[in-house]
């Protein structure tokens, strides 16, 4: 697929990924009363840029559930290595949601699920409708959703990653990313994987046998492989079979959760100018307040004018 700004039907934004990046990028920012505002500023500024960059796309923002999810039920140590959310970030969450809704963007938060699962379900629905989706994130897990109709917009590089780019990045095709983490684990989420199997060995096994399931169906053939330590790998795999499939399950993004609305119903609503003006003033976002008062903050005219210049 050749991408341009007109053929992206849906822009799905990993709000949680953007939230943490914004917080650490603008951690010192606060209003005149000392109330933290860096995460709010960073996320809204990014959303503003994305809207201007993709004015023809339907934008939907997903955030993690604030409570534990089904993955914690499967594995009590899931993400146990993560630090607790800083208080200075926590106090910005509800105001951020309020501003996003005031601007008119739909927000989806589902109890028991992560933003990944919401995005996975929406992307799957869009794919079934033969629509094209772009996912804005830095989360490597979301690479498993990439196909002929779904791509990743990397937050850091601003590059669009399709199937070939994901394969080059991870060493396996997108659909095998959960299998890869099933074998090698994922330290960032405290997914255990199989002890003593690293990335290179995991990729080699998946290239030879095609999936985690097929690897376990052919453990008698692993000793014939050419990579180092092949003779012992089969024993290690058999010993850790339960952990391998648990890890694969933990790394698999849901694409079938029950959503309150269909993707077509999650539309942008008109900006509530009065409330947005109050919030911008409260958080000392003076430049945005000026643009809002002049009618130049995310208006169709300003968006299309910018689009026509690029």
TrEMBL record:
The organism's place on the tree of life at top rank: Bacteria
Native organism: Buchnera aphidicola subsp. Melaphis rhois
Example GO BP: DNA replication, Okazaki fragment processing
Leader peptide range in chain numbering: none
Residues covered by the 5'-3' exonuclease domain: 9-269
Protein name in the entry: 5'-3' exonuclease domain-containing protein
Keywords for the protein's UniProt record, in alphabetical order: DNA-binding, Hydrolase, Nuclease
Record InterPro entries: 5-3_exonucl_a-hlix_arch_N (IPR020046), 5-3_exonuclease (IPR002421), 5-3_exonuclease_C_sf (IPR036279), DNA_polI_H3TH (IPR020045), FEN (IPR038969), HhH2 (IPR008918), PIN-like_dom_sf (IPR029060)
CDD domains, A to Z: H3TH_53EXO, PIN_53EXO
One term of GO molecular function: 5'-flap endonuclease activity
